[in-house]
Amino acid sequence: MPSKFKNPEAYILQLPAKRQVVIKKLGTIISKNLPKGFEEDILYNIMWIERYVQAIKK
């Protein structure tokens, strides 16, 4: 199912104003504490955290 939101920012912008404030604060806290390689993304029209694994070439 394709997402109707292109990125987390687009998802946040569709929320009611009061929720936007809370979600942005929460997102800032989470982003500051995520280990390297993790990012916020959109999947099935919801925000989530995923880890991007890069292939290591020898």
Can you describe what's shown?
With 58 residues, this protein is α+β, with helices and mostly antiparallel strands. The protein has one domain (8-51). Helices cover 40% and strands 21% of the residues. The protein has helices at residues 8-13, 17-33, and strands spanning 38-43, 46-51. It has a two-stranded antiparallel ribbon with strand order 1-2. Strand 1 and strand 2 (46-51) form a beta hairpin. The termini are far apart.
Radius of gyration: 14 Å
List SSEs in N-to-C order: HHEE
Summarize the biggest pleated sheet: 2 strands, antiparallel
Shape: flat
The largest beta-sheet arranges its strands as 1-2
Structural class determined from secondary elements: alpha+beta
Short structural summary:
The protein is built from two helices and two strands; from the N terminus they run H-H-E-E.
Helices and strands in order, then pairings?
Layout: H1 8-13, H2 17-33, E1 38-43, E2 46-51
Question: Which key features would you list for this structure?
Answer:
2 strands, single chain, 21% strand, alpha+beta, 58 residues, two-stranded antiparallel ribbon, flat
